[in-house]
What we know:
By secondary structure, the protein is an alpha/beta fold. It has helices spanning about 10-20, 40-45, 65-75, 85-95, 135-145, 160-165, 175-185, 225-235, 240-245, 245-250, 250-260, 275-295; strands at about 35, 55-60, 75-80, 105-110, 125-130, 150-155, 185-190, 195-200, 205-210. The chain has a 7-stranded mixed sheet, with helices on both faces. A two-stranded antiparallel sheet has the order 1-8.
Amino acid sequence: MTSPTPDALLGPADVRELAAALGVRPTKQRGQNFVIDANTVRRIVRTAQVHPDDVVVEVGPGLGSLTLALLEVADRVTAVEIDDVLAAALPATITARMPDRADRFALVHSDAMHVTELPGPAPTALVANLPYNVAVPVLLHMLEAFPSIERTLVMVQSEVADRLAAPPGSKVYGVPSVKANWYAEVKRAGAIGRNVFWPAPNVDSGLVSLVRRTEPLKTTASRPEVFAVVDAAFAQRRKTLRAALAGWAGSAAAAEAALVAAGVSPQARGESLTVEEFARIAEHKQNQHQEEESA
């Protein structure tokens, strides 16, 4: 009889040994909290609905806990890592623990915010444990840069998860909620306890699922034009939209005209509007400019 092969995934002792060998001490600056529980990373892969034909991009793989779980299931995995030491070590970890899948792994040593292309086939899924301090900008950048990503599952600080998945009218509905909704249907997909991380964070974590819209939002306004309205509306979220959008429109009267034309009350506040309504407002500023130019 052959002895059973040891689990290829990283457990608590493996993570600590790897970190010690590399001289890695998790830093708060990069929000590094390494997952040390194999059941948790497998649960993340299941929740992300990763298929055998998926090409997955992972941001911030760290020591490789989630990377290995993704490689068990996906066709290919490309990991984007900014940290020099972690990026240098990850390919060896993959080769040592999952040699038969190592040729399906690629590493991009870069800041995810600067990545606009990836090696190999276009990614179909994004799965990542994102540091709380850069979670929203990294997520939005990846969705914009890689329209082939159909499904996303990110693990983020619980508070960030709430904001991303918040519906209009919620107290925590804001810029991340609207911008994420521009790309995808967004929902909370679970909670993650603190004890599955090393070091254990001071905050709870949550999973957020984003399924890309099958058809882009129907609007004649561009994404930057819509996002400009969103930013202006929430920069002064306690003000009515007539007042909050005055700078964006050129005057309070121009803001009111765009709002009325879009079918939105000038007395409403940004937190009550859907992404479709923000898009209509952007269209009507655009229309005003076109009318002025043709006059």
